[in-house]
Design a protein that fits this description.
Distance between the termini: 66 Å
Radius of gyration: 21 Å
Largest sheet: none
Strand content: under 5%
Number of strands: 0
Number of helices: 1
Shape: rod-shaped
Order of helices and strands: H
Helix content: over 70%
Length: 51
């Protein structure tokens, strides 16, 4: 049973990092600018409420 699990993990492990890398690039391209814009809007809202 452990040999079968190792085979499955090995097969999944060889394919999964490539997919994770692609999703990591997509997340970096879309996610980081979205976080930056969200943080900027949050700071502007706080600044407007405080002033």
């Amino acid at each position: 049973m452990s040999a079968a699990e190792g085979d499955v993990a090995g097969a999944g492990g060889s394919k999964t990092p490539r997919g994770r890398t692609r999703w990591g690039v997509v997340t970096a391209i879309l996610g980081l600018p979205a976080l930056a814009v969200g943080a900027f809007l949050l700071m502007m809202a706080v600044w407007l409420l405080v002033s």
